[in-house]
Amino acid sequence: SVPAAILSALSASARGGVLFKGGAALETLARVDSFAFDKTGTLTTGRQEVVDLACEGDPDIFLARLAGLEAHSEHPIADAIRRAAAARGLKPVPVREARAVPGEGMVGVDDEGVLWAGNARLAARMGARDTPDDRPAPVGGLDRGTQTLVLLGRGARLLGAVTVEDQPRPTARPGLAALRARGVARVAMLTGDRRAVAERIGGDLGIAPSEIHADLRPEDKVRIVAGLTEAGRVAFVGDGVNDAAALARADVGIAMGAAGSEVALQAADVALLSEDLGQLAAAHALARRTARIIR
Ligand code: ADP
Ligand code: MG
């Protein structure tokens, strides 16, 4: 049977918006000394805004196509693109057979053929390159700075791109500081986004550059989490479909509950229903106190 101390800790943490799937996860969290975080939708609000657009041809047609493909995605980037199209009064172009390529973007079919939207890795996969020294014409003029670049292409042809940007959650900086104050050995960021974007957000949050891992595919997140577990117990906090495998691999997987994906919630041991990342340090403290009582 579950000790009373654990039951009372589980219900206390639930009141703070931290839902453990069982007593074992609470006991493991007590031993965790490294926290790794996904960026988009986890350390940031996930509320992206379209900042800039560059394309060949009519920008409205371009954006309507992009929005038609992103209509099938639950990614925060997709939401920003749909809102930008709606703000211009555009009707999304119908796209069928749309599917997500986790950590890269979307692929689908419209009445002119295969359409894809995503990052440079997806562009390379589709045969359309996008590297700093090889910037195809429609995108060449776009200043990507520290924003996320979303490329739209048809087969190997690049049609254009938008840049999107979001901001750290207000509770991220104090939440990470609270974890460090508890003596947590490492706080790391694992993101599928570009390094320039990762360093802007990580820098705002006081994450050491050596702890920022960018341009990761879902399987890279798993590999890095596995590497961290060699030095101690690791909690991974994430929200996306692309985080599910890393959530399962970590000693304690913590899914963002309010806006996170169903797949992430299923893979995790803990759901963080609160928007407040400070609840992580509180849950860690509670887990440690409970472990001392039952030992
Ligand atoms: P993070 O790890 O920061 O949460 P993801 O792994 O979800 O980011 O996505 C990694 C990258 O893949 C994004 O930064 C973006 O470039 C691209 N991407 C993912 N989903 C989409 C989408 N629906 N539309 C466009 N780009 C996407
Ligand atoms: Mg995410």
UniProtKB/TrEMBL annotation:
Instruction: Provide the protein's localization.
Output: Cell membrane; Membrane
Regarding protein family, the annotation reads: Belongs to the cation transport ATPase (P-type) (TC 3.A.3) family. Type IB subfamily.
Name this protein carries in UniProt: Cadmium-translocating P-type ATPase
Q: Which organism is it from?
A: Rhodovulum visakhapatnamense
Q: From the entire protein, which fragment is shown?
A: 289 to 583 of 639
